[in-house]
Amino acid sequence: MHQALRVLGRPKDASAGAAIFIEYQELTSGSLSFKKPGNIEVKPASASAYLYYCLGQIGELVRWEEWSKKGRFQITLISCQQAKTVGFDHQKILELLERCKGPRTEIPAGLKFQIKSWSGYYQPLTSNRILAVEAQQPEFWQELFGLPEMAWLKEKIKRTGR
């Protein structure tokens, strides 16, 4: 991350070396793409120091291509928990991704669900004596069963009624 900021940022004072001017308005639509589950790719032509800074607050830098100034970040349970400590709740994370994605790009439903879950938006599931599971927010089930990976469970519940 430091390497990315050093390359993209402008030091305030050459002798200090650490301070960087970061302009909030440098976030532009179309800067991000979502190719692999949980991964956010930054398109090099639209990369800014502030974008890399924000992504460093909510995800882990997993790849950096020096020659193209292209980075890939991964959203994880740990990165979402760390993001909360610096003021990024699920809503702010999703707003950042919405602002920086392209107009024809959708944030994958699985990524949205993970961010909400890992950021603590959804309350923990509870089990009862009859082995029923209850979610505090109704949209939890809609989002969960909307994921392609969960289609098998949705079908099983429909068939058995359990």
Summarize the structure.
The protein contains 7 helices and 6 strands, in the order αββαββαααββαα. It is an alpha+beta fold and 162 residues long.
Overview of this protein structure:
This protein has seven helices and six strands. The protein has 162 residues and is α+β, with helices and mostly antiparallel strands. The strands form two sheets. A four-stranded antiparallel beta sheet has the order 1-2-4-3, with helices on one face. A hairpin with a 4-residue loop joins β3 (60-65) and β4 (70-74). The chain is elongated and about 55 Å long. The termini are far apart.
Q: What's the SSE blueprint?
A:
Blueprint: H1 2-8, E1 32-33, E2 39-42, H2 49-58, E3 60-65, E4 70-74, H3 77-85, H4 90-100, H5 109-118, E5 126-127, E6 133-134, H6 139-146, H7 151-160
Antiparallel strand pairs: 1-2, 2-4, 3-4, 5-6
Helix pairs in contact: 4-5
Provide tags for this entry.
single chain, 162 residues, alpha+beta, 4-stranded antiparallel sheet, two-stranded antiparallel ribbon, 13% strand, elongated
The SSE order reads HEEHEEHHHEEHH
Please provide the count of β strands.
Answer: 6
Distance between the termini: 47 Å
How would you classify the helix and strand content by structural class? alpha+beta
Task: Based on Cα principal axes, name the global outline.
Answer: elongated
Q: Which residue ranges are poorly predicted, with pLDDT under 50 across at least 5 consecutive positions? A: 8-14
Q: State which percent range the strand residues make up.
A: 5-15%
In angstroms, what is the radius of gyration?
19 Å
The number of helices is: 7
On the 0 to 100 scale, the average pLDDT is 78
Strand order of the largest sheet: 1-2-4-3
Helix content: 40-55%
The main pleated sheet reads as:
4 strands, antiparallel
